[in-house]
Amino acid sequence: MRITRSVRLGIGAIAVAVLATACGGDEQRSVSQSAESGSLVVGIKFDQPGLGLRNPDGTFSGFDVEVAKYVGQQLGVAPENIEFKEAPSPQRETLIENGEVDYIVATYSITDARKEKVDFAGPYFVAGQSLLVRADNTDITGPESLSGGKRLCSVAGSTPAQNVKDTYAQDVQLQEFDTYSACVEALRNGAVDAVTTDDIILAGYAAQYPGQLKVVGEPFTEERYGIGLAKGDTESRTLLNDAIEEMIASGAWQAALESTVGPSGYPLPEPPQVDRY
Q1: Domains 31-126+224-264 and 128-222 belong to one CATH topology
Q2: Sorted alphabetically, which SMART domains does this protein's record hold (predicted)?
Q3: Where do the structural domains in the chain lie, given as residue ranges?
């Protein structure tokens, strides 16, 4: 889908008006307005293999990166004019609310609580919560087996570890870090017994450390990944949803998933249905 210059100008004006009304003139960005200027700032993860990874040469790779670039192109912005900004889990809403990014594609689960602060396009992928353990571990097979005071790591600003404690293992010891890569290092050096987050994220880390780490058990939640953008930027959200649907219909979604996540051995699912709430 390509949008003409006149259409983009009109959309930009509408989006600015909507944000000014809904947000009291704060610093939130309109995606359409930024796209009209010819550049975008997009939040991604920098430390998730197969999803959002900053490579040693300064380039970026992963499925979220490919989604971000495809959406940008559908808005008329070439990949080289997209600036990627790190979006750690605890900072995602703040980055959007402060206008530091146009949108975020960073394994960002759509939840009712988050929709009170930001809007979402998508979902563009559906994952499920799982567990990562050391390869020689035999006693952790699922969330219930974390009972007995086992040490479980996840990321501040995310919900997986608390979900395990509330639902499956009340006496589990929770450890939080700012990034999943820090959790993985703690797991590798024996400081924690397991890491929990979405299965697709964990599969990337297991592939990064073959023979050292493994994903265990069946997924025990449903995590719908969306593209986060400023609350009230309805026109832009519609365009982002259009772009996601076009990526799926064109085959680009499948190709991107196969090239980025496929090498980890993660079983590739069918594409999701966009929810235009």
Answers
A1: yes
A2: PBPb (SM00062)
A3: 31-126+224-264, 128-222
Q: Which two tokens stand for residue 39?
A: 């550049």
- For 127-176, the DSSP string reads E-EEEEEETT--S--SGGGGTTT-EEEEETT--HHHHHHHHT-TTPEEEE
Residue whose tokens read 């997924």: 219
Question: Nearest CA to 182 among 153, 206, 204?
Answer: 153
CATH of domain 128-222: 3.40.190.10
Entry pTM = 0.84
CB 119 within 8 A of CB 100: no
Whether residue 66 contacts residue 4, with contact meaning beta carbons closer than 8 Å, is answered with no
How does 7-18 read in b/e, with b if 16+ C-beta sit within 10 Å?
ebeebbebbbeb
| CATH no., domain 31-126+224-264 | 3.40.190.10
| Distance (Å, whole) CA 91 – CA 140 | 31
Q: 142-194 pLDDT, tens per residue? A: 999 999 999 999 988 777 878 888 899 889 999 999 889 999 999 999 999 99
Q: How far is CA 147 from the centre of its chain?
A: 29
How would you class 112 by CB atoms within 10 Å of its CB: exposed for 0-12, middle for 13-18, buried for 19 or more?
exposed
Characterize the bridge pairing of strands 52-54 and 47-48.
antiparallel
